[in-house]
Input
Amino acid sequence: MRIITLGTGAGRPTLRRASSATGLEYQGHTFLFDCGEGTQIQLMKTPFHWGKLQAIFISHLHGDHVNGLPGLLGTLSLSDRQEPLTVFGPVGLKKLLQVHQDCQTLGLRFELTIHEIETPQSLMQNGDYEIDTLPLDHVIPCWGYRFRESPLPGRFDAAKAQAAGIPPGPLRAELVAGRDITMPDGRSFASSDFVGPRRSGRSFVHCLDTKPCEAAVTLARDTDLLLYEATFCGEGGERAHEWGHSTARDGAEIAKAAGVGELVLTHISQRYGDPRELLSEAETVFPKVRVASDLDIFEVRHRETPEE
Output
Protein backbone atom coordinates (compact mmCIF):
# COMPACT_ATOMS: atom_id res chain seq x y z
CA MET A 1 0.00 0.00 0.00
CA ARG A 2 1.60 3.23 -1.15
CA ILE A 3 0.78 6.67 -2.46
CA ILE A 4 2.41 8.72 -5.18
CA THR A 5 2.07 12.50 -5.20
CA LEU A 6 1.45 13.09 -8.89
CA GLY A 7 0.96 16.84 -8.53
CA THR A 8 1.92 18.86 -5.47
CA GLY A 9 1.37 22.48 -6.49
CA ALA A 10 -1.27 24.99 -5.43
CA GLY A 11 -3.23 26.95 -8.01
CA ARG A 12 -1.60 26.95 -11.41
CA PRO A 13 0.80 24.21 -12.53
CA THR A 14 4.48 25.10 -12.90
CA LEU A 15 7.55 23.35 -14.28
CA ARG A 16 8.44 22.47 -10.68
CA ARG A 17 5.04 21.29 -9.44
CA ALA A 18 2.04 19.94 -11.33
CA SER A 19 -1.54 20.54 -10.19
CA SER A 20 -3.08 18.46 -7.42
CA ALA A 21 -3.38 14.71 -7.90
CA THR A 22 -2.44 11.72 -5.75
CA GLY A 23 -2.51 8.04 -6.59
CA LEU A 24 -3.02 5.25 -4.06
CA GLU A 25 -1.94 1.73 -4.95
CA TYR A 26 -3.46 -1.15 -3.01
CA GLN A 27 -3.17 -4.83 -3.92
CA GLY A 28 -2.36 -4.00 -7.55
CA HIS A 29 -5.26 -1.56 -7.98
CA THR A 30 -5.06 2.21 -8.21
CA PHE A 31 -7.29 4.91 -6.73
CA LEU A 32 -6.93 8.55 -7.75
CA PHE A 33 -7.55 11.53 -5.47
CA ASP A 34 -8.02 14.80 -7.38
CA CYS A 35 -7.13 15.26 -11.02
CA GLY A 36 -5.45 18.53 -11.91
CA GLU A 37 -4.24 19.45 -15.40
CA GLY A 38 -2.03 16.85 -17.03
CA THR A 39 -2.65 14.10 -14.50
CA GLN A 40 -2.70 11.42 -17.20
CA ILE A 41 0.84 12.43 -18.20
CA GLN A 42 1.99 12.23 -14.59
CA LEU A 43 0.42 8.77 -14.27
CA MET A 44 2.37 7.58 -17.29
CA LYS A 45 5.60 8.42 -15.44
CA THR A 46 4.78 6.13 -12.51
CA PRO A 47 5.20 2.40 -11.85
CA PHE A 48 1.52 2.22 -10.89
CA HIS A 49 -0.93 0.11 -12.90
CA TRP A 50 -3.01 3.12 -13.80
CA GLY A 51 -4.93 1.11 -16.37
CA LYS A 52 -6.39 -0.72 -13.35
CA LEU A 53 -7.86 2.51 -11.98
CA GLN A 54 -10.71 1.54 -9.62
CA ALA A 55 -12.21 4.92 -8.76
CA ILE A 56 -11.52 8.66 -8.77
CA PHE A 57 -12.24 10.99 -5.83
CA ILE A 58 -12.48 14.73 -6.46
CA SER A 59 -12.25 16.97 -3.41
CA HIS A 60 -13.82 20.09 -4.95
CA LEU A 61 -14.42 21.81 -8.26
CA HIS A 62 -11.59 24.34 -8.35
CA GLY A 63 -9.71 23.90 -11.61
CA ASP A 64 -6.37 22.80 -10.16
CA HIS A 65 -8.16 19.76 -8.68
CA VAL A 66 -10.50 18.78 -11.52
CA ASN A 67 -9.43 20.29 -14.86
CA GLY A 68 -7.45 17.18 -15.74
CA LEU A 69 -10.43 14.86 -15.35
CA PRO A 70 -11.89 15.17 -18.89
CA GLY A 71 -8.46 14.56 -20.37
CA LEU A 72 -7.81 11.53 -18.21
CA LEU A 73 -11.21 10.02 -19.00
CA GLY A 74 -10.60 10.61 -22.70
CA THR A 75 -7.16 9.00 -22.48
CA LEU A 76 -8.64 5.95 -20.76
CA SER A 77 -11.25 5.67 -23.51
CA LEU A 78 -8.67 6.00 -26.28
CA SER A 79 -6.66 3.30 -24.50
CA ASP A 80 -9.63 0.92 -25.00
CA ARG A 81 -10.68 0.75 -21.39
CA GLN A 82 -13.73 -1.51 -21.06
CA GLU A 83 -14.24 -1.71 -17.30
CA PRO A 84 -16.79 0.62 -15.66
CA LEU A 85 -15.42 3.51 -13.62
CA THR A 86 -16.95 5.58 -10.81
CA VAL A 87 -15.98 9.17 -10.05
CA PHE A 88 -16.92 10.62 -6.66
CA GLY A 89 -17.08 14.35 -5.97
CA PRO A 90 -19.20 17.33 -4.97
CA VAL A 91 -22.48 18.40 -6.48
CA GLY A 92 -21.84 19.98 -9.88
CA LEU A 93 -19.47 17.29 -11.11
CA LYS A 94 -22.12 15.70 -13.34
CA LYS A 95 -22.89 19.03 -14.99
CA LEU A 96 -19.19 19.72 -15.55
CA LEU A 97 -18.63 16.46 -17.40
CA GLN A 98 -21.96 16.63 -19.20
CA VAL A 99 -20.91 19.93 -20.81
CA HIS A 100 -17.86 18.19 -22.28
CA GLN A 101 -19.98 15.35 -23.59
CA ASP A 102 -22.66 17.66 -25.00
CA CYS A 103 -19.98 19.65 -26.83
CA GLN A 104 -18.51 16.37 -28.10
CA THR A 105 -15.13 17.12 -26.57
CA LEU A 106 -15.35 13.96 -24.46
CA GLY A 107 -16.41 10.63 -25.89
CA LEU A 108 -16.34 7.55 -23.68
CA ARG A 109 -16.24 3.87 -24.62
CA PHE A 110 -16.75 2.60 -21.10
CA GLU A 111 -19.48 3.01 -18.50
CA LEU A 112 -18.93 6.05 -16.30
CA THR A 113 -20.85 6.60 -13.06
CA ILE A 114 -20.76 10.00 -11.34
CA HIS A 115 -21.56 9.89 -7.63
CA GLU A 116 -22.20 13.38 -6.28
CA ILE A 117 -21.65 13.63 -2.52
CA GLU A 118 -24.11 15.60 -0.45
CA THR A 119 -23.68 14.10 3.03
CA PRO A 120 -20.89 12.31 4.96
CA GLN A 121 -20.99 8.65 4.02
CA SER A 122 -19.17 5.44 3.20
CA LEU A 123 -18.44 5.55 -0.52
CA MET A 124 -16.89 2.16 -1.22
CA GLN A 125 -16.67 -0.94 0.91
CA ASN A 126 -15.65 -4.54 0.39
CA GLY A 127 -13.91 -7.17 2.46
CA ASP A 128 -10.52 -5.52 2.05
CA TYR A 129 -11.12 -1.80 2.56
CA GLU A 130 -13.59 1.04 3.12
CA ILE A 131 -13.48 4.60 1.75
CA ASP A 132 -15.50 7.29 3.50
CA THR A 133 -15.74 11.07 3.45
CA LEU A 134 -16.37 14.18 5.54
CA PRO A 135 -16.88 17.82 4.48
CA LEU A 136 -13.91 20.15 4.94
CA ASP A 137 -13.90 23.93 5.45
CA HIS A 138 -13.08 25.60 2.13
CA VAL A 139 -14.63 28.49 0.22
CA ILE A 140 -16.73 26.07 -1.85
CA PRO A 141 -18.00 22.56 -0.99
CA CYS A 142 -14.99 20.33 -0.45
CA TRP A 143 -14.65 16.72 0.72
CA GLY A 144 -11.87 14.92 2.52
CA TYR A 145 -11.41 11.19 2.01
CA ARG A 146 -10.23 8.31 4.20
CA PHE A 147 -9.08 4.92 2.90
CA ARG A 148 -9.09 2.26 5.63
CA GLU A 149 -7.89 -1.27 5.20
CA SER A 150 -9.99 -3.90 6.94
CA PRO A 151 -8.66 -5.28 10.25
CA LEU A 152 -5.68 -7.58 9.85
CA PRO A 153 -5.17 -11.00 11.45
CA GLY A 154 -3.18 -11.14 14.64
CA ARG A 155 0.55 -11.87 14.48
CA PHE A 156 1.48 -15.54 14.34
CA ASP A 157 4.09 -16.71 16.86
CA ALA A 158 6.19 -19.00 14.65
CA ALA A 159 8.75 -19.66 17.39
CA LYS A 160 6.05 -20.89 19.77
CA ALA A 161 4.60 -23.11 17.05
CA GLN A 162 8.05 -24.53 16.34
CA ALA A 163 8.58 -25.26 20.03
CA ALA A 164 5.23 -27.07 20.12
CA GLY A 165 6.29 -29.24 17.21
CA ILE A 166 3.79 -27.82 14.70
CA PRO A 167 5.53 -27.97 11.31
CA PRO A 168 5.25 -25.22 8.68
CA GLY A 169 2.43 -25.91 6.26
CA PRO A 170 -1.32 -26.52 6.37
CA LEU A 171 -1.60 -26.89 10.14
CA ARG A 172 -0.02 -23.50 10.76
CA ALA A 173 -2.22 -22.00 8.05
CA GLU A 174 -5.27 -23.28 9.92
CA LEU A 175 -4.09 -21.58 13.10
CA VAL A 176 -3.46 -18.29 11.27
CA ALA A 177 -6.98 -18.51 9.83
CA GLY A 178 -8.38 -18.70 13.36
CA ARG A 179 -9.19 -22.39 13.42
CA ASP A 180 -8.11 -24.84 16.12
CA ILE A 181 -6.17 -27.93 15.06
CA THR A 182 -5.56 -31.53 16.10
CA MET A 183 -2.12 -32.97 15.41
CA PRO A 184 -1.58 -36.48 13.99
CA ASP A 185 -0.35 -37.54 17.44
CA GLY A 186 -3.68 -36.48 18.97
CA ARG A 187 -2.59 -33.24 20.59
CA SER A 188 -4.95 -30.28 20.12
CA PHE A 189 -4.07 -26.61 19.94
CA ALA A 190 -6.19 -23.47 19.91
CA SER A 191 -5.54 -20.77 17.38
CA SER A 192 -5.55 -18.17 20.15
CA ASP A 193 -2.49 -19.86 21.68
CA PHE A 194 -0.38 -18.83 18.69
CA VAL A 195 -2.15 -15.89 17.06
CA GLY A 196 -2.41 -12.50 18.71
CA PRO A 197 -5.46 -10.20 18.65
CA ARG A 198 -6.60 -8.70 15.35
CA ARG A 199 -4.86 -5.48 14.36
CA SER A 200 -6.27 -2.39 12.71
CA GLY A 201 -5.54 -2.13 8.99
CA ARG A 202 -3.48 0.59 7.37
CA SER A 203 -5.10 3.91 6.57
CA PHE A 204 -4.60 6.99 4.40
CA VAL A 205 -6.38 10.36 4.58
CA HIS A 206 -6.56 13.02 1.86
CA CYS A 207 -7.31 16.58 3.10
CA LEU A 208 -7.12 19.22 0.33
CA ASP A 209 -8.17 22.15 0.33
CA THR A 210 -9.23 23.33 3.77
CA LYS A 211 -8.52 25.66 6.60
CA PRO A 212 -8.07 23.95 9.99
CA CYS A 213 -11.35 22.38 11.10
CA GLU A 214 -12.64 19.71 13.44
CA ALA A 215 -13.73 17.54 10.51
CA ALA A 216 -10.10 17.24 9.38
CA VAL A 217 -9.10 16.03 12.85
CA THR A 218 -11.99 13.57 12.93
CA LEU A 219 -11.19 12.22 9.48
CA ALA A 220 -7.49 11.85 10.27
CA ARG A 221 -7.93 10.33 13.73
CA ASP A 222 -5.30 7.59 14.26
CA THR A 223 -4.56 7.32 10.53
CA ASP A 224 -1.20 6.01 9.40
CA LEU A 225 -0.51 8.59 6.69
CA LEU A 226 -2.17 11.99 6.40
CA LEU A 227 -1.80 13.96 3.19
CA TYR A 228 -2.59 17.56 4.10
CA GLU A 229 -2.32 20.88 2.31
CA ALA A 230 0.34 23.47 3.15
CA THR A 231 -0.38 26.33 0.77
CA PHE A 232 1.36 28.87 2.99
CA CYS A 233 3.93 29.24 5.74
CA GLY A 234 3.10 30.90 9.04
CA GLU A 235 3.40 34.48 7.91
CA GLY A 236 0.56 33.86 5.48
CA GLY A 237 -1.73 32.26 8.03
CA GLU A 238 -4.42 34.93 8.14
CA ARG A 239 -4.64 35.09 4.37
CA ALA A 240 -4.57 31.28 4.15
CA HIS A 241 -7.59 30.93 6.40
CA GLU A 242 -9.45 33.72 4.63
CA TRP A 243 -9.05 31.77 1.37
CA GLY A 244 -9.93 28.43 2.94
CA HIS A 245 -6.38 27.11 3.11
CA SER A 246 -3.83 26.02 5.69
CA THR A 247 -0.22 26.67 6.61
CA ALA A 248 2.44 24.04 7.22
CA ARG A 249 2.01 24.61 10.94
CA ASP A 250 -1.75 24.09 10.63
CA GLY A 251 -1.13 20.72 9.01
CA ALA A 252 1.25 19.74 11.80
CA GLU A 253 -1.27 20.75 14.46
CA ILE A 254 -3.99 18.69 12.76
CA ALA A 255 -1.63 15.70 12.62
CA LYS A 256 -0.72 16.07 16.30
CA ALA A 257 -4.32 16.46 17.42
CA ALA A 258 -5.41 13.46 15.37
CA GLY A 259 -2.53 11.23 16.50
CA VAL A 260 -1.47 10.29 12.96
CA GLY A 261 1.54 8.13 12.18
CA GLU A 262 3.07 10.30 9.44
CA LEU A 263 2.26 13.66 7.85
CA VAL A 264 2.96 14.47 4.19
CA LEU A 265 2.49 18.10 3.16
CA THR A 266 1.41 18.97 -0.38
CA HIS A 267 -0.48 21.69 -2.33
CA ILE A 268 2.55 23.95 -2.08
CA SER A 269 2.37 27.52 -3.36
CA GLN A 270 4.86 28.36 -6.10
CA ARG A 271 6.19 31.14 -3.84
CA TYR A 272 8.08 28.47 -1.87
CA GLY A 273 10.90 27.26 -4.06
CA ASP A 274 12.71 25.66 -1.11
CA PRO A 275 10.49 23.24 0.86
CA ARG A 276 12.76 23.44 3.89
CA GLU A 277 10.90 26.55 5.03
CA LEU A 278 7.65 24.58 5.21
CA LEU A 279 9.35 21.56 6.75
CA SER A 280 11.01 23.59 9.50
CA GLU A 281 7.72 25.22 10.45
CA ALA A 282 5.86 21.90 10.66
CA GLU A 283 8.62 20.03 12.51
CA THR A 284 8.35 22.35 15.50
CA VAL A 285 4.89 20.87 16.13
CA PHE A 286 4.96 17.40 14.58
CA PRO A 287 8.37 15.86 13.88
CA LYS A 288 7.32 12.98 11.63
CA VAL A 289 6.59 15.09 8.58
CA ARG A 290 7.77 15.30 4.97
CA VAL A 291 7.11 17.81 2.21
CA ALA A 292 6.12 16.09 -1.03
CA SER A 293 7.49 16.72 -4.49
CA ASP A 294 5.94 15.53 -7.72
CA LEU A 295 6.21 11.75 -8.21
CA ASP A 296 7.37 11.03 -4.66
CA ILE A 297 6.30 7.60 -3.43
CA PHE A 298 5.36 7.04 0.22
CA GLU A 299 4.71 3.63 1.74
CA VAL A 300 1.64 3.53 3.97
CA ARG A 301 2.93 1.54 6.91
CA HIS A 302 1.02 0.40 9.93
CA ARG A 303 2.39 2.28 12.89
CA GLU A 304 3.40 -1.02 14.52
CA THR A 305 5.70 -1.71 11.56
CA PRO A 306 9.27 -0.50 12.14
CA GLU A 307 10.70 2.00 9.70
CA GLU A 308 12.76 0.41 6.97
